[in-house]
Amino acid sequence: MKPLKMVDLELEQRFLGPAIEKGIFEVLRHTQFIRGPEVAKFAQALSDYLSPPGEKVHVIPCANGTDALQLALMALGIGPGDEVIVPAFTYVSTAEVARLLGVGVRWVDVSPSHFNLLPEALEAAYTPRVKAIVPVHLFGQAAPMEPILEFARQKGLYVVEDVAQALGASYYTPQGPRKLGTLGDIGCTSFFPSKNLGCYGDGGAVFTRNAELAEKITRIANHGQSTLYEFVDIGVNSRLDSLQAAILLAKLPYLDEMNARRRAAGDYYDARLKHLSDLITPERVSWGDHIFHQYTLRVQRGQRDALRAHLQAAHIPAMVYYPRPLHLQPAYQSPEYPAGSFPNAEKLAGEVLSLPMHPFLQEEQLDYITTAIEHFFG
Ligand SMILES: *Cc1c(COP(=O)(O)O)cnc(C)c1O
Known about the structure:
Elements: H1 9-30, H2 37-50, E1 58-62, H3 65-75, E2 83-87, H4 93-100, E3 104-108, H5 122-125, E4 130-133, H6 145-155, E5 158-162, E6 170-173, E7 176-179, E8 186-190, E9 204-208, H7 211-221, H8 242-251, H9 255-273, E10 279-280, E11 295-299, H10 304-313, H11 343-351, E12 352-355, H12 363-376
Parallel strand pairs: 2-3, 2-4, 4-5, 5-8
Antiparallel strand pairs: 1-9, 6-7, 8-9, 10-11, 11-12
Bound molecules: pyridoxal-5'-phosphate.
């Protein structure tokens, strides 16, 4: 059996290698490493992939997912004195960019079963300074967008979706499924190598249906430049390079197939682990599909770390995403949010365990992992 990894990019290269190498060598030949033709081509291809029939979603590539979030807030004019609502249980980027821009963070608790922001907690987080809600579609599954969008409509707030872990997943609307990242005002994603659509370095993108906003985001990502040496906004330098765009162009046509393979691995884990009484398998929500960026268990009765050690002894990697909620992190803590403020997020930090998850998990590997877990629980 091939040694297990959380994410196995070697196996990906066995499958997609020739297409990826062809793209890379084309860039080496034309040497336009910045703003080469691959960048616009990829933006168009991702726009075609995301756009619902009869609509256009603009895609602005950028340097990474964290920059995508920063560009979104900058383009919406959110700055000092403003606040944004962010889930307490997620990766740091969402809160980090807000604070870098002098924007206050209002935390909200998450669901203990699907890990996403709880819409019923929005009212308590709201203040008149709040300008936007930033829901994160955590682990590959949609946040409950309808009540979030409804709350935003009532209060006149922007919605910026963090889709870094769920690119290709959908939200079920009455008009049919819609790709995550295209429901709010702006969507932000990352192409970090381990994401569902990853490049071989850093990369990210911002999406919006609003053409004016798209133009502004494009400008801000390019030093606030309108025409050559005409700087109309304070901007940043945030680019996806041509090599990364070429790699993404080769991989994008396979995204749905890769996500389906992840889902099959998720189904296998569910079938083998659901009956274990000390484990809670991840909820599949009714309002969208799950593309399993992570397969995240909740381990009950304080056994998480012991299970992780047991797996490690069997050479099975398992990760804790995330060990501490953001409101209790040294850099983000404040007297306003003492321990106990967000019981679900705080409980999850002690219970969650993510198993190896990528599109090329073999049945032999899945059997080995789940058998080791069964043995742990006797
Ligand atoms: C990965 C990730 C990011 C940041 O992406 P980078 O490309 O690493 O900057 C932001 N939000 C979430 C939820 C992520 O998983």
